[in-house]
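Pasting two entries for a bug report.
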Amino acid sequence: MSPSEGKIEEFFHTLTQQDHHPAEDVHIYAGDFNAHVADETETHITIQEGHTIPPRVRDCHKRHAPSPPAAAPITNARISNPQRGRLLLRMINTTSFLILNGRFEAADNPIPYTLQRQDEATINDYNLIAKQHFSKVKTCYVIPRPARTLRSKSGPPTDHNPIVIHLLLLAKSTTQGTGNTPIHQELPPRTKYHSSKLKDVTNRKKISDALEDQDSKAEQAIQSLQTSLQQESINATVRRKGQRNHCVRPASHSTENHWNNGISRQKGPDRIFDTKKTARQ
């Protein structure tokens, strides 16, 4: 996960603002955040939740602490690992996400470093999940390398250690129901609106044109209903037998399907690590 330098704050802001997933959907953010959080814990974990959410085995080296909460605003284009750590903590505290790696080790286990190169070892890669889905995580652990060596032909092709996560998810039934048994259908692939796509001129024009078109249609429908009401061919409060009520929706609601069927299906960097985990039968 490597957003362009100078856009790190925007990246974390996007993750925070786009946290509107359906409650049943499990999303995991995973990757190399280049962020140091040391021994700071998520502030949204209550005392009661602390009995079921274990603490992390952490890298508490003083060089790997995040920047202070009240640190001055970031002005440099290149953001340091401690600054990234503070941005990461703000994001997970706002969205109630948890850092998973380090929570499933015994207290006396070695620190689960995710980066090891020569004399350097630290944690800057993370697997994150919403707190409400923590019970679905069976385990999460880091596979360490046997020695702190640089990448080589015989060893791993990277100096980052892989993180393994095991989820327990219920499959969605697609079996035809019989008798009084309801029919459960597999939900269609979910699409999501991303405000960041409006920065693209073409996308912005598409959604603007769609809104204007729906506004025009809604205005015509309203005028038709007003005429019918004046001619007393319909009643504003009584539904006549055999007739269906009319509903005029706002243009912003009417264009939702247009957006979901078109623009939001375009791929972009803000969708790469928003991973939907769905178990299927």
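Entry 2 (this is the one that rendered wrong in the viewer):
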Amino acid sequence: MVEQRYRKPQVTSSNLVIGSRIMSRSHLKNHLQKQAFKNIAFALLGIIVLIFVLFQFGPQLLINFSLMVDKLKGDKEVSSSNQDLSFVSPPMLGTMPSATNSAIIIVSGYSLPKQTIKLYVNGDFVDKKETKEDKGFTFEEVELKSGDNDIKVKAVTEDNKESDYSSIIKIRYVNKLPSLDIDSPSDGQSFSKDQNQIKADVLEFVEKTYEEKEKQVSPDIMRQIEKTLLLRVIDELWVDHLEQMEYLRDSVRLRAYGQRDPLIEYKIEGQKLFIELQSAIGSQVANLIFKIGPVNQQISPVVHKPAKIEYNKTETPNPNPDDTVGAPTLRRGSKTPGRNDPCFCGSGKKYKKCHGV
């Protein structure tokens, strides 16, 4: 019994084999995963490098490869044609007028550096210039012929390769002054008056017209008309001006979003509105004052006749004459006058200030 109590547990060989297989499989799986990630990373890096190399050196490599193949074949004509196919961009001319009255102009433009620019006018070679450091070129004192002129340029590189012609610019040179036929004014007429003289003549005509109108209605009435008209126009336009100022006060605060001081903007805009108010008052008064004239109709004066008063038969006269109850009243069934209508008693006062109290 004692030997069985202290006996060590025996591990079978089958358990060891299974455990070792499981561990080996897990290590192999991790190793394969790491190797797969490395392969994917290297493949992506290689693709990126290949794309960069193709964009950077691909066209030149293809051209060199094609030239090498042509040389190996011994086809000299094809190789020379391939050399001629190297593209040279044409220069660009600057903006020039479509017509001029000057026989000498300046031609300028832009091209690639280290190039020689040839200038042609009407198909004839005129001059050549080297491009500057800023890739610009300028031809000064270019002579034009009378009529239409075609201007174009081309570029020549250091290895004597020429570009195509640039876009043609047409310039018309007119060496004659333009003529203008005027039928009016005819012989003997002229416009010798200057602007100040014209203003003085218009002002004199307006003053004469106003004096004639003043004589028609008498000076005293004209002064009264001027005061009434001026007050009426100011009253109407001043109300509109206050509404505009109120709207400006509510909306000027939004200018703070544009980094502007609302108070300063309010003062500036308010001054502009006040100047516009003064101009509108003067314009409207000047417009209306000349539309006022005497009325040809003869207005008959209004004569207030005493109204016929009928007392009610059922009412007895008031013995007290000072009592207002016994005052004449309207007949039953008649329409009561309005508060602002003339009183029926014939006093000439309004009903609300006489019997309507």
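Dev reply: Rendering is fixed now. As a check, the viewer should reflect this: The radius of gyration is 54 Å.
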